[in-house]
Amino acid sequence: MSARSAPGALPVVGWRELVDLPGIALTGIPAKIDTGARTSSLHARVLESFERGGKPFVRFAVDWDDIAHEGEAVQVDMRGITSSNGETQKRYVIKTPLRIGGHEFRAELSLADRSDMQFPMLIGRTALRRRFVVDAGHSWLQSPLASSIEAPAIRSKGAPTP
Fold first, then answer.
1. What does DSSP assign to residue 37?
2. Would 115 disulfide with which of 8, 46, 94, 156, CB 3.0-4.6 Å?
3. Over its length of 162 residues, how does the chain's per-residue pLDDT go in tens digits?
């Protein structure tokens, strides 16, 4: 299946894609496309929450490949989100531009410790709805240069390096 679609048709994504978060200057983030998850999630450590201009903000660090990439964004919610192990966790939720291939839109992301997961980011069905069709049998359909990469090692700060 091709990443190109007929005019008017939705673009096709594979089960994993490279994504960008231009609003917080992060690019080339390997992400798992997961229609079983409602909310998208980004591996991050919350450093602080604060107010700016009367709006709640959160400052966070995204750790992968042994580099801490810091960002900040408007906090839109603090939400109970059920993780893959069935536990409900209170998580900060931000809204920021998300780019998959040539398609950019605003998406809500929960900030979570994904250090035990293979991918630092998960794209859930709310972000995908009415924007993409998922071909679970293929990878990197919107990220053709990524076909030879592996998901990076992600870990929480202070975790031992293998």
1. -
2. 156
3. 455 556 679 999 999 999 999 998 888 999 999 999 999 999 999 999 999 999 999 999 987 677 888 899 999 999 999 887 888 999 999 999 999 999 999 999 999 998 888 999 999 999 999 999 999 999 999 997 776 666 555 544 444 333
Reduce the DSSP state of residue 74 to 3 states and report it: strand
Given a contact cutoff of 8 angstroms between Cβ atoms, the answer to whether 99 and 22 are in contact is yes
User: What does pTM read for this prediction?
Assistant: 0.84
Please give the single-letter amino acid code of residue 66: D
Q: Helices marked H in the chain — which ranges?
A: 125-128
Single-letter code of the amino acid located at 92: Y
- With tokens 């801490």, the residue in question is 68
Angle CA(18)–CA(23)–CA(28) in degrees, nearest 5? 20
